[in-house]
Design goal:
Elements lengths: L1 E4 L2 E5 L10 E6 L4 H11 L7 E6 L1 E4 H7 L6 H20 L2 E3 L7 E5 L20 E4 L5 E5 L4 E3 L24 E3 L2 H15 L22 H9 L13
Antiparallel strand pairs: 1-2, 2-3, 3-4, 5-7, 6-9, 7-8, 9-10, 10-11
Helix pairs in contact: 1-3, 3-4
């Protein structure tokens, strides 16, 4: 396996182990040390410098997983995605950086349990008790101005965020600064897409629509509302 997302490369390492249930994977990025530190903070990976290693049964791009399972996703997996995106945003923020937006192309899913969940050949299969998600596109990570909490946008987003879920404020031109909580809006859209799949139309579907009736009034529903606040500085990434 050799997967590249931005300047980040994931490689499945060869091993001499026999009958091993998990393999060793390496995540490497020579350009953005802040990304590697955030990966280590939430994944428990080992290593130093520009690379980290971890053990896993399977690693797959989120986009590929959604295609394989035909968007028949599970709520508990969506909550794991919510949890891990939040952890990584917090880890980056503690180092003075933030994420502008997310897409299904920028995230990988890590499973530690042997399962048919990646193909859904078994309707009862799951990803295990604790699948992990990692955001790996360093090109969408920017420095945060601590004086006002804004991301310092120093490169054009239109070319590097083509398939991303973007907050309304990212459409403004010219764009040089945006509140770091712009990522909350994008993460909420990604979560909705994860649960609803192609039926979700970015920028069109309302949370008051019938599509979200199954979760209306739940903790997840109110979490999404807080993330999608029209005022960036008033958004909160809190699931209670």
């Amino acid at each position: 396996m050799h997967l590249r997302i931005g300047n980040t490369v994931i490689t499945k390492k060869t091993t001499a182990k026999t009958n091993a249930k998990e393999s060793t994977y390496e995540i490497k990025n020579d350009v953005c040390p802040h990304l590697i530190k955030s990966v280590a903070a939430i994944s428990g990976s080992s290593g130093s410098g520009s690379s980290k290693s971890f053990e896993a049964r399977t690693v797959m791009p989120l986009k590929e997983y959604l295609q394989r399972c035909n968007h028949a996703t599970e709520l508990y997996v969506a909550l794991c995605l919510l949890r891990d995106l939040g952890r990584q945003m917090q880890a980056l923020l503690s180092g003075g950086h933030g994420i502008a937006c997310f897409s299904v192309d920028d995230v990988v899913i890590i499973a530690h349990l042997e399962s048919d969940a990646f193909t859904h050949s078994d309707p009862e299969s799951t990803l295990g008790p604790d699948p992990q998600f990692l955001f790996l596109n360093d090109r969408l990570i920017f420095e945060v101005d601590e004086s006002d909490g804004t991301l310092l946008i120093d490169r054009a987003l239109n070319a590097i965020a083509k398939n991303a879920f973007v907050a309304p404020e990212l459409a403004e031109e010219p764009l040089t600064r945006v509140h770091f909580k712009t990522a909350y809006h994008s993460a909420a859209q990604l979560l909705i897409y994860f649960l609803l799949g192609p039926s979700f139309k970015q920028g069109i579907m309302s949370l008051n629509g019938t599509s979200l009736n199954p979760i209306k009034g739940t903790k997840l529903y109110w979490f999404l509302l807080r993330c999608l606040n029209r005022v960036p500085s008033e958004r909160s990434y809190v699931y209670v």
